[in-house]
């Protein structure tokens, strides 16, 4: 009996061994494919092409249905890596029926498989809208929303991230995400302890809210703003980036939603964000201010009273490149309001100096354009506003920017428009006169002499100053054709002075004097001149 039992045991092991070896071989195969997928880089894309040519996708598809849970999970991981590396692979996976298989197994699978399956769906959907649509058609969005209701934070994280990648592509996909009931569980995810889950959940809400007002309102109505505000307490840079980005998009959709953001108390949090070591936190915080300030004078005044201009000015000063843009635009939106006191407060904190620096030193035409626009808004209100800009040399810098060959048409238009606004408010002849030049734009030149005419008419002292500083002489030296508006205005200025003064500064005055001297000399040397004296 003992011998028979031993023999039966050996036979049982012998039968089982090939199956165990086969399981090990499948595990080894999937793991090696995963290692190969990890080694793919932009410099070495040929590995992934070889794997596809050898039928890796078809083999992995079958392994997704394997009886062994760990093999199914490893196959999902490897497919996710391959789909993430190359859009064409993601398309092949989407067209091979793998999504359908994944969705079928997610309903009954363990948490590990659900996490990797959701990651695979994300890696497919992230590339383009068409692939995200394929995921939705195969019921992928439904199972992703179900992931948000799972107990395990890792499964929720994978589901939220995939939903974020779907919603970001366009309005239609974001609407489908909302229709699938994703918003409420995403907001619930903000209350979880896992910081990574909070990040991706807030990112998904951002991707939904950014597209249009209806979607932003849906996010707001479900209580997203309060949930986001509470997350400032976590003091996590990546999370704070997403909080500010989401609030900025919501506020940018109109006065009603801007009020909802404003009343949440976010403005109390922004000054600290503007000095955060993380540049994206600072930039996104400035975006919140920009979107609020542009809505109305009331919102701009709220930004000024709670945040004040100095933190915004310092944000611009210590930033560079595109990061500066929202700060520059914020100042412009504040300055454009009818209440000139808002612009004056900006000038007190030297906002115009930082805007001038951006105009001078930035290489991006868009940043220069926005800086010129903001300067025009600051100087358009009154004599005092314009004088502050003129004293800082901003008029000259705007002229230089307008004349530079490297300036595009939009930048030239912005610079010119800003110049005209500021010049028309200037009441100091010494600030205007240095700008008069034969080489500047005709419309700008005409505006300059019109202001000069207004300043010269009532004051004898001003007329003297205009002569002494050389402005009158420069005016006469400018060549122009008859019938132009500039010539008409110059003639009016000339009429304010005696004729001999005008003749003295005329472009041909020197030639006329030389000619008169020569004529007098000829008369002196002629014989008739001697006869005259004898008579």
Helix percentage:
over 70%
Strand percentage lies at under 5%
Computed Rg: 37 Å
Helix/strand/pairing class, anyone?
mainly alpha
Give a short account of the largest sheet. none
Distance between the termini: 173 Å
- Strand element count: 0
Uncertain spans: 531-535
| Whole-number mean pLDDT | 87
What is the helix tally? 36
**Oligomeric form of this entry?**
single chain
Account of the protein in words:
It contains 36 helices and no strands. It has helices spanning 2-38, 46-53, 56-63, 69-85, 87-95, 98-106, 111-125, 129-137, 140-148, 153-167, 171-179, 183-189, 195-209, 213-221, 224-230, 237-251, 255-262, 270-274, 279-293, 297-306, 309-317, 325-335, 340-348, 351-361, 365-379, 383-391, 394-403, 409-425, 429-432, 442-456, 460-468, 471-477, 485-494, 499-504, 509-525, 527-534. Helix 27 packs antiparallel against helix 28 and helix 30 (442-456) runs parallel beside helix 33. The longest helix has 37 residues, at 2-38.
């Amino acid at each position: 009996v003992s011998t028979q039992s031993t023999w039966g045991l050996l036979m049982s092991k012998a039968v089982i061994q090939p199956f165990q070896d086969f399981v090990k071989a499948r595990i080894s195969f999937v793991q090696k494919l995963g290692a190969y997928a990890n080694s793919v880089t932009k410099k070495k894309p040929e590995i992934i092409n070889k794997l596809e040519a050898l039928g890796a996708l078809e083999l992995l598809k079958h392994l997704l249905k394997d009886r062994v849970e760990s093999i199914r999970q490893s196959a999902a991981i490897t497919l996710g890596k391959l789909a993430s590396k190359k859009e064409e692979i993601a398309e092949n996976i989407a067209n091979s029926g793998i999504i359908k298989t994944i969705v079928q197994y997610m309903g009954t699978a363990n948490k590990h498989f659900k996490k990797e399956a959701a990651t695979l769906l994300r890696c497919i959907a992230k590339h383009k809208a068409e692939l995200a649509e394929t995921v939705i058609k195969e019921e992928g969005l439904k199972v992703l929303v179900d992931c948000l209701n799972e107990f395990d934070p890792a499964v929720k994280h994978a589901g939220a991230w995939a939903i974020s990648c779907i919603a970001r592509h366009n309005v239609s996909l974001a609407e489908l995400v909302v229709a699938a009931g994703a918003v409420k569980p995403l907001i619930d995810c903000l209350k979880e302890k896992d910081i990574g889950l909070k990040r991706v959940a807030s990112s998904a809400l951002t991707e939904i809210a950014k597209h249009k007002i209806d979607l932003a309102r849906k996010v707001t109505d479900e209580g997203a703003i309060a949930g986001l505000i509470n997350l400032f307490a976590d003091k996590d840079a990546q999370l704070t980036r997403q909080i500010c980005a989401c609030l900025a998009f919501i506020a940018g959709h109109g006065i009603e939603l801007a009020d909802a953001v404003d009343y949440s108390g976010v403005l109390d949090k922004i000054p600290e964000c503007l000095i955060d070591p993380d540049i994206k936190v600072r930039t996104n915080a400035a975006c919140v201010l920009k979107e609020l300030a542009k809505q109305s004078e009331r919102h701009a005044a709220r930004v000024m009273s709670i945040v004040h201009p100095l933190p915004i000015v310092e944000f611009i000063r210590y930033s560079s490149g595109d990061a500066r843009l929202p700060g520059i635009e914020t100042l412009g939106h504040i300055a454009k309001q009818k209440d000139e006191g808002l612009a004056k407060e900006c000038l007190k904190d030297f906002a115009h100096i930082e805007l001038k620096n951006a105009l001078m030193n930035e290489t991006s035409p868009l940043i220069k354009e926005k800086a010129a626009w903001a300067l025009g808004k600051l100087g358009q209100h009154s004599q005092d506003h314009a004088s502050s800009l003129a004293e800082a040399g901003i008029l000259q810098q705007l002229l230089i920017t307008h004349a530079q060959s490297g300036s595009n048409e939009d930048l030239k238009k912005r610079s010119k428009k800003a110049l005209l606004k500021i010049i028309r408010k200037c009441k100091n002849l010494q600030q205007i006169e240095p700008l008069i030049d034969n080489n500047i734009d005709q419309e700008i030149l005409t505006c300059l002499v019109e202001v000069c005419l207004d300043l010269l008419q009532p004051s004898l002292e001003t007329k003297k100053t205009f002569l002494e500083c050389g402005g009158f002489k420069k005016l006469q030296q400018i060549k122009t054709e008859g019938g132009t508006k500039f010539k008409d205005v110059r003639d009016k200025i000339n009429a304010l002075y005696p004729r001999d003064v005008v003749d003295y500064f005329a472009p041909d005055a020197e030639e006329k004097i030389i000619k008169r001297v020569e004529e007098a000399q000829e008369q002196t040397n002629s014989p008739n001149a001697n006869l005259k004296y004898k008579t």
